[in-house]
Amino acid sequence: MASTTQISHAYRSLYRNILKAVQYSSPARFVARDQLRRAFREPGATYDERGIKRTNWFLEAAAKEKGMEHRILKNLLRVQKMSNETKVANATAYNHYDMTVAMLNKSMGTLLR
User: 44 near 51, Cβ under 8 Å?
Assistant: First the structure.
């Protein structure tokens, strides 16, 4: 079990790296912030130090240059924003997308959503 200071440090480091990765752009930073808040407020959430460290590495790489990581993050946030706007759409519309993100997380050891 992680202490509250470890959890708050993890939250702050992830949030700081997200802001750098999206270059403080207006819609992306709010979508990412809301997603991070939901992840940390989830009732059954567990603290995974290794996953947090790898996610921070991923976000740092996305911030460093406009490579594959930057494009993946950009598309993740774009799809999340669109899915928030289209809640009326079919509930199964994002099943394939969610499975793809889950496989990406499993193969890279990250905690992206």
Answer: no
